Amino acid sequence: MSEHEGTYRTFTGKTYSLYGINTGTNQYYKVIKKLADLFLQQCPDKKRLLFQIQKASVNRSFFKKRSGKNINHSLISFIKKTLRDSLSVYTAGVKHHLRTLPLSQRFDSTLMTKEEQYHLYMLEIELVNRIYKEPFKSSQYKFALLPHCLRDFRPDCHSVPGDVESVCKECTERCFIHLGSLLLKKYNIHPYISVTMDLEKLFKRLKAEHPSIGALGVACVPELVNGMRICINLDIPPVGVPLDANRCARWMKQACESSFNLKMLEALIK
Ligand code: SF4
């Protein structure tokens, strides 16, 4: 039994849940690893595969206009179909969410993420972790952003403003920000609670202060991909762990408790 076994409850998100039909999220991680291995047999260059799936996850009309000759269409069709067959169980809420999303929120690209994009993003996170794990670990300064939604439902949260973002004051043992922060500190990674909206500005500032820097994120699937892409553009090696489900107020209209897989976090940073 792992040390955090009793900490987890099964969570359903607005659009996705890494629990699927299981009582834990380990099965999801086994599935996504197997899928990445399978696609890497077809396209052994990890960065090339990442490029392909990033292009495939942009909206369809843009993809048609801009994809051109660099896209391996038969590979992408195979990937999309295989992902759909294997990952739909984790994205059961997307269609209903999109059908019922108010008109006023249809300009929000995160809220408008389609089911196929979720699947491609899940693969993208796995590939980015494989590509950037070692560069991240060998960075001199490493920091992590944990999502504020993990503590939103705690009106008595004792976190305080820190030098980069807010920092946890470890007021309660079962808070996932506390548990994640303890683990991160063990591996010399500075943990912060993400509050800033303008990530690019924050990352540019940190890169200027620490030329050898690595970033770790915990966020819902679309937000994690967005953060990873910003980091890569700024030459900051990123890694990340998706939230087990998307349950913050942006999705659920009120903050609901969530979690992430601490075992996967440790596997990524040890
Ligand atoms: S453990 Fe940390 S993040 Fe969680 S409620 Fe307490 S101060 Fe806030």
General description of the model:
The structure is a single chain. This protein is an alpha/beta fold and 270 residues long. It has helices at 26-42, 46-56, 60-66, 73-87, 94-100, 115-137, 176-186, 199-209, 221-233, 249-252, 262-269, and strands spanning 141-147, 160-161, 166-167, 190-194, 213-219, 238-242. It has one domain. The strands form two sheets. The protein has a four-stranded parallel sheet with strand order 4-1-5-6, sandwiched between helices. A hairpin with a 4-residue loop joins strand 2 (160-161) and strand 3. The longest helix has 23 residues, at 115-137. The protein is globular, with a radius of gyration of 18 Å. The relative contact order is 0.16. The mean pLDDT is 90. The structure holds iron/sulfur cluster. Iron/sulfur cluster (SF4) binds at residues 151, 154, 157-159, 168-172, 175, 177-178.
Helix content: 40-55%
Tally of separate helices: 11
- Please state how the strands of the largest beta sheet are arranged side by side: 4-1-5-6
Number of strand elements:
6
Layout of strands and helices, then pairs:
Elements: H1 26-42, H2 46-56, H3 60-66, H4 73-87, H5 94-100, H6 115-137, E1 141-147, E2 160-161, E3 166-167, H7 176-186, E4 190-194, H8 199-209, E5 213-219, H9 221-233, E6 238-242, H10 249-252, H11 262-269
Parallel strand pairs: 1-4, 1-5, 5-6
Antiparallel strand pairs: 2-3
Helix pairs in contact: 1-4, 1-6, 2-6, 4-6, 6-9, 7-11
This protein binds iron/sulfur cluster.
